[in-house]
UniProtKB/TrEMBL annotation, chains A, B, C, D, E, F:
Keywords (A to Z) from UniProt: Lyase, NAD, Oxidoreductase
Gene3D superfamilies per UniProt: NAD(P)-binding Rossmann-like Domain
GO molecular function terms noted in the UniProt entry: dTDP-glucose 4,6-dehydratase activity; oxidoreductase activity
PANTHER family the record matches: 4-EPIMERASE, PUTATIVE (AFU_ORTHOLOGUE AFUA_7G00360)-RELATED, NUCLEOSIDE-DIPHOSPHATE-SUGAR EPIMERASE
Species: Roseovarius albus
Domain of life from the UniProt record: Bacteria
Positions of the NAD-dependent epimerase/dehydratase domain: 7-168
InterPro entries linked to this entry: Epimerase_deHydtase, NAD(P)-bd_dom_sf
The UniProt record lists the keyword NAD: yes
Signal peptide segment: none
Entry EC no(s): 4.2.1.46
Family: Belongs to the NAD(P)-dependent epimerase/dehydratase family.
Protein name: dTDP-glucose 4,6-dehydratase
Gene giving rise to this polypeptide: rmlB
Enzyme class: lyase
Length: 270, 270, 270, 270, 270, 270
């Protein structure tokens, strides 16, 4: 398997970042890990860096001498616009600039179902369907998908934009019976993208092998991701403790789930 | 799994109706079963009703207090137009009106390959392809598919129109080596549609996991149907006792099979 | 131009029927005209027949010795189901049976925007898009479109199903500023379909050359229809006397217009 | 024609803003005009406001009591990221927030060919094709297209995102012989979008009726734009004074023109 | 307009070649003209060369010092395979090799409707539709379309493959009322392709502005061809002297016309 | 399973021909095997014929009394044009003529990935995508695909054009980790095509069940091919002995692999 000298993982203190550190360690001699908060349990092969992605100079240093970047940092939820602007939009721009200036050639970006959340469940979209963000957070994911396309077309930096659906230890609500992405499957998707012979600019949809098939990920087939997990073993317990949803609720109708029922962050708590 | 208070099964004395009664019993406290002929072997959880679907008042009573309807009643073959008009067109209209007036929110309808029978075997259509009925019977299936679309868009009643290919105890001719839908798989498809979180208006193609793949059912992926059976174990015996077909015979060329070779019902027997 | 010995026009007493009688007279030696009401102002070249299309025997006689049929008869609006069933569904079946039994080879059918009325204005559908009926009337139009497809695939009878948008002497409301089909353009479309070298089974969308272009009629390009009229000259007067519509009203959002705001005919007047 | 009480034009001191002030005056009783620089030649019906779009509070005031917004403000060229971030991304967010909070229901946004500039000339894309930004400027246009989609799906604010190709007094180079949008045609497109019965969320491609047809704008047909001008009268003079281009130059190959040959703004001047 | 030093026209003694010599003369200082037969009426700006395209060495000489090639040479009809092999397949290969070795960068090739003749009239194909040759002649046209694609992708030689429908002085049968390409329009198409800023590899469909629109040529819109002629003025006379065709005759059903009714050339005359 | 009296295998001395002789023997009483070189190890059920496919008379004899033809003969690599012309183009024409004249009704043709080699790895094409040959060899494969289409549309001879990717005993380079077709899977594909109830004219893509999925073969689903092998077990050893490829090398970027890096055969060795 392709072996890297050094890869960088951003958001490394986050739920998925912790999994990626474990799951990708075998791919590189050095793993630089970064987050805005202190990183725990640093391993001998790891280089821990506390860094705000909105700080241009810091990111230029952070991205030095890395072969590939796994960019999972940034605000992970709907929040007020200025936070999204700084951490997700400006921060991701810094990451791509760091890659360009420092010569990293491949980026795996944690995009999200919320980039396409306003598609209906029965729409069965694929990677070429128009986007339908369901939140300011989702719009910031669109931004990075488009920015990375520019960095591919103009600067030759390859990207996988992996639209993560619901990556949790196990399905946490009824919707996750179809939208779940197990940690192991998430790590596998990132790993395959790092070692694929050619990535170009690819949009992927991160879902485990759940019973319901709601999006078409075939246009990422050159990555070689094959999910191993399924939400099905969790179905009976989940259905026993929750009510059947209203099919017309926005959180069921649209693939973005409850993000489609959120108001504007400025209005929350009023 | 979603549990219903009462579901209604029409056509309950038919070949598939009998299977559905057995296979869906676990989903509901009460199962109302109906046919135009006497119903045999009525179980304690079943409410048997003899009913002509062409009788408006009777159907309004039949559909009272049901949560969901599995509508498999009506003429199952090419017959003279007035019979199709009364049992399939008027009768299905009555079922949808019953659902609307009595508040049933979900209908599973037994549509048919004959709604699309004049597509060529190598066309590989999906749920959005234009219809190509192969018979008056097929046109009546188109009618209900369209009527149910209206009842979704205007009245909010969800439907699965399940285009059943060849549902028999086992493959009965060479064509069924690709077109077979086992009873168990047919029941599974209906069951999954009843309990799916959202149906909207979905067209499904009912086929077991046969070796030859002739239509694309991916746009029903949100139902969660995964066939368990295959016609392949029946292949050797079937090929031993039948001749290889002419690839240009209408019954081979078109997915509707021998319906495409039928003349008009008025001309039959002449 | 192709000259017929005899063509049949049904619905000949209707708004459009009267125009067709005038506009198509030059195409045939004899024009048989039919309606359920008495026909006025019968010309020397015309053969007037009062006929209920729901009467099988009468239609078999009506369709004798005609080369082509212009089928504009039937209920022109949303009405209770049994009327639609008899006049539009059974009646149109009789017309196609008459064509088949009596050897007429080409039918021009007055389908309607209401066959596709639940598509959104910005959807820009074409002839292969799935249907979206907006009324029982619309479902009956779908029925004849599908029936005529069967009569083409199985019996070789060619059809144009002309989805008429709003054919009135002049635009009668704001929506007609985009949906208008002038009488002259309607007649032209039918005329071109009668004389086209090949019709096969074609779906057409009948619209004048209005400023707003809402559907794509290019798949009927082999007919050779080119609208001559436009609603634009009527715009200023119409806008002066009516208010700007709410873009989210169903009658504006969907191409079917106010049919999409109608309830079920059984509920009207309650 | 629809008449507004008050519309807002941003970027009103710009090349196109000046044209819009003249061309749209007849549509509204009051025209609020805004730019970051002093506005010249203010008319009696105009309310001039100097305003930085990156200033949230100022934009909330600017957008008060307006019925519709013509948003042409922001950096019009490739510049360093922080300028684009502030004027185009943050600034446009403020405009949409102003619309949402103050009740404006329709926005016409000056998007750009640079949102899709990396498509090849022979690709013939339409409004549903994936975006291909050719610059940071282009990525900011994608951002607003996506943001406005969110504001439509979630908050019901209609938008036309008008991808302006080359809007100049006359074609200024050979590429503009196909990419030119005359001022009059630009104004017409905006005007039609303001008065269209329904906009929903529409992507338009702003081009005059030039000889070469490079993109397909039919999915904006419900706006009713019909270009009146053409670059053709300028062809001979332009060809006389310029050399034939290299078909493989990025500025010819891609529809974004010379933006596709630009490096990163950080590298310019080095 | 782009001016060439020297262009080469093959098939210059043919029906269309003679028109091209007249119509393209203004584009180049020198026009080399070639055919397998003696060329008549050679003009001062013309260099006449008698040449068999199947002769490799001769073609290498023929293609020296030319900037662009208008390749209309080869057998123009269905003939026995060895003739097609030599003149159309080997001959066209020689032309492309000549272009490659001698540095001509653009080729306009006379392809034909017979490359796609087995598509039905109501199919409304475009440049990306699969080919359907109707003759060995048509297969040789496919060959050159594919060969020229290779020479674009691998060697950077641009081509227009212009599928000529029926280019005659005037429509010669009923089918040409829709399939006619006037000489002037044919010359215009070639001219525009020679001077277009970028050709890449383009498939064009050569038709005048006839009433019936049977194929979609929009993917060649970057060429800037706009037909000026129409077959319509010839309609009345043509219809007066010919019978209406059978819509199901292969020559009407398929766009290739009577080529679809031809048997194999080996069988002709038997 | 369908049993033939006699099938013909061309190219029977080749790498795949030898496998086909073993794998298809059970399907026919007699297997005629042919090559331009002496055939070794002839079995009792085999009829060995040494034959140049470019020899018309010889091929007419070769194709006598056969029910089906497995046409794997011809030059298997990029070579100078005249060899390709004679063996692949003329030779395949002779095979189809032999089928037509002698009444063989089904041909399985060894097409190649090189017919579509210039598609990018992330393009995910299917059987209806435009061809992109990567070599003169590839153009000859296009030729036979088109010729066979003619022989289906006009003469009723069914074909599978099987685009073989990389059929070797085991993966021989890194690319074959996704492009490999095991011998057993190759034989299975041919076998299924011989016995399928209907072939019509089908394009297939021959790939084993490798981890990376690069093309979509679903439009050949009516053949019933299901690969049993995978290149995955060979991955570790292959990656251990080879370097990771450059994603932008033509041999990685395009699915045709190193054929896309070949120059013209005339230039090789210079």
């Amino acid at each position: 398997m392709t072996h890297f000298n050094r890869i960088l993982i951003t958001g490394a203190a986050g739920r998925l970042g912790i999994e990626l550190r474990k799951g990708l360690a075998h791919l590189a001699t050095h793993v630089r890990i970064s987050d805005r908060v202190e990183l725990a349990d640093v391993q001998p092969n790891e280089e821990a860096v506390v860094c705000e992605l909105g700080d241009y100079e810091a990111v230029m240093v952070l991205t030095k001498d890395v072969d590939a970047i796994v960019h999972f940092g940034g605000a992970p939820l709907e929040v007020e616009f200025e936070t999204i602007l700084d951490s997700n939009i400006r921060g991701s721009y810094h990451i791509y600039e760091g890659a360009r200036k420092n010569g990293a050639k491949r980026v795996i970006y944690a995009s999200s179902v919320h980039a396409i959340g306003y598609h209906e469940m029965e729409a069965h979209i694929d990677a070429d369907s128009p986007v339908r963000p369901d939140s300011l957070y989702g719009v910031s994911k669109n931004f990075v998908e488009n920015l990375s396309r520019l960095y591919w077309d103009k600067f030759g930096i390859e990207s996988l934009c992996l639209r993560i659906f619901s990556s949790f230890p196990e399905p946490a609500d009824r919707r996750m019976l179809w939208s779940w992405l197990s940690f192991a499957d998430c790590v596998q998707y990132v790993e395959r993208a790092l070692v694929a012979p050619r990535l170009g600019h690819t949009i992927g949809h991160g879902l485990s092998d759940n019973r319901l098939k709601v999006v078409d990920d075939s246009k990422a087939g050159h990555i070689g991701f094959h999910p191993k997990d399924s939400a099905e073993p969790f179905r009976d317990a989940m259905e026993a403790k929750t009510d059947a949803p209203d099919p017309n609720a926005a959180s069921v109708k649209y693939i973005g789930g409850w993000f489609c029922e959120l108001g504007h962050p400025d209005d929350e708590g009023k």
